[in-house]
Amino acid sequence: VTFWGVRGCIPTPDEENARYGGNTLCVGVQGPEGTLVALDAGMGLRWMSDSLPPGPVELHLLLTHCHWDHIQGIPFSPCMYSPGNRVHIYGRRPSAAGLKETLLRLMDPAYCPVPNFFLLKKVGADVEFHEIEEPDFQVGGIRVKSLPLPRGRRGSPSSGYRLECRGKVLAYLSDVEYPPGETGEPACPQALELARGADLLIHDASCLPEESGCPGGHSNYRQAAALARQAQVRRLALYHHAPGRTDEQLDELARRCQALSPPTFVAREGLELEL
Ligand SMILES: [Zn+2]
Question: Angle, nearest 10°, between helix axes 221-230 and 247-257?
Fold first, then answer.
C-alpha cells in the first residue's frame, strides 16, 4: 500500500505542508499477480502513474465520489493516455448523470488541455466504466466490497471500500460524516462492516474534534479511532488532511495519536506499507 496523495480538497504545494505532502488523494495497492488498484484519483495518481512498470498495464481505479480532490489526477496521469493500457473506473452513480457522463465533463476542452481519451478511440488507455450496483465484486486477485457511507447534508454520498486478498484486509473510508449519535459507539453499520478486522483502516480525519464549523462531510481522529476499536482493526491511518493543516500541526496530531488504540499514524505522502 502506497500513499501517493493525502491532502483533501485542494493541492497544497507549500513549504509548510511539504513533509506530509500536498497532493490530493490517491492510495495505490499492489496485489498478487500484478493486480494494480488506485483508491481515488486526485493529483497523487499523477505520481503513482510514474511509478508503474513500463509496458501495458491494467489499472483498477476505485472512486469514493467525484469531488475534484478525488478525480483531478485523471486527465494528467500518463497511465490514462498511454495506448495499450486498460483502465477500469469504478464508482457509484454521482447524480442523475452517470459516472461516465460526470467524468466526461472533466475532459471538456473548456476545462482540460488533454485530448479526450474517454471519447477518442485512438488516444490513450482503453477505459471502461463500472457503476457499482452490487456491493461485492472482484478486481484481478482482490475481492472488493463497497458500501455507501453517510456524508451529512453534503449531498454527494461517498463509497467506502474493503479490499481482501490472501487473508489480508485493507479498508478505505474517506469523506465520511457520521450522523449525530453514530459518531462513537456503536459505529455506523456500513463503516463497521467494511472495517471489521482490517489489517489497515485508512480513514478520513480532516477535522479536529475541537474545531467548530469544520466543513461538513468529514470526520475527526476520535471518530476514526472509535470505529477502529469497535471493528478491531490492527492499524489506523488518518487521511484526507485539511488543506490548511501544516506539518507542525500534523506532528501534533501524531503526538495525540500515540495514546490511541489501535496503533494510529498520520498518513504521509510516499509512505509505503506491506500488509
Ligand atoms: Zn475529499
Answer: 30
Mean pLDDT split into 10-residue runs, the chain, 275 residues? 97 96 98 94 97 91 97 95 94 91 93 89 91 97 96 81 97 90 68 97 94 82 93 97 96 92 96 97
> What is the whole-number distance in angstroms between the Cα of residue 172 and the centre of ligand 1?
13
Question: Residue 43 contacts by C-beta under 8 Å, 6 or more apart in sequence?
Answer: 5, 11, 23, 24, 26, 72, 73, 76
Q: Is the pTM of this model over 0.70?
A: yes
The pLDDT score that the predictor gives to residue 254 is 93
What are the phi and psi torsion angles at 209 (to 5°)? Answer: -55, -35
CA of residue 23 to ligand 1 center, whole Å: 12
CA of 41 to the centre of ligand 1 (A): 11
Q: Minimal CA–CA distance to 64: which of 48, 41, 86?
A: 41
Pair type for strands 136-139 and 264-266: unpaired
Which set of grid coordinates corresponds to residue 269? 505522502
> What separation in Å is there between the alpha carbon of 10 and the centre of ligand 1?
9
**pLDDT score at 22:** 98
Q: The cell 485539511 sits on which residue?
A: 242
Q: State in Å: Cα 94 to ligand 1 middle.
A: 14
φ, ψ dihedrals at 160, nearest 5°: -95, 160
Distance 7 CA to ligand 1 centre (A): 8
H helix intervals, the chain: 44-50, 68-71, 78-81, 99-106, 189-195, 221-230, 247-257
* Cα 3 to middle of ligand 1, angstroms: 15
